[in-house]
What we know:
Strand order of the largest sheet: 1-2
Radius of gyration: 22 Å
Shape: flat
Structural class: mainly alpha
Number of strands: 2
Distance between the termini: 35 Å
Strand content: under 5%
Amino acid sequence: MKTFLSPLNATEEKEYLRRWKEGDQEAKKILVERNMRLVAHVSKKYQNTEEDMEDLISIGTIGLIKAVCTFQENHGSKLATYAARCIENELLMYFRSKKKCSKEVSLYEPVGTDKEGNQIQLVDLLEVDDKDVVEQLELKRQILRLYELIPYVLDERERQILQLRYGLNNRTSVTQREIAAKLNISRSYVSRIEKKALEKLKNNF
């Protein structure tokens, strides 16, 4: 495995984060390069899978880049802590996606023949309009995209409120008033957080 540069110290990291927030692309590049050891460290957890380590690092690097792009210092966590979660999420999404794809059946999979000996495909047995299929697939793609964005774009409180409000991850949706009582905050505060979270998702979608 290649040797990566040593991590930045706290002062250096703060300076490069400041420069990156001001639009310095070189600062962003340095933040990524100097955190590649973290990518390798997280990726090692999956080295016993059939995936090549270099491929795992490439996938983990995508998570690191997302972390650098979305990290907010005022939320209290360190960049390394936040990046480790993003890297792990990216790897887990990859494995989930791969597992899902391996189970998918093509709509054009041959399933038999008709009385005239013509091949029958799975799509022939589905009494749905082609347009409906396309729209359903597009809707599903957009929903998956939103689920992917939530860990990177929203902070913990925003994620919690959206999960409760909209019943994400197979939960039962509840009202703003119920959320306020559960979290011991005002309903108007719940409303503001919900509105802010939805706006952040919309801007990043």
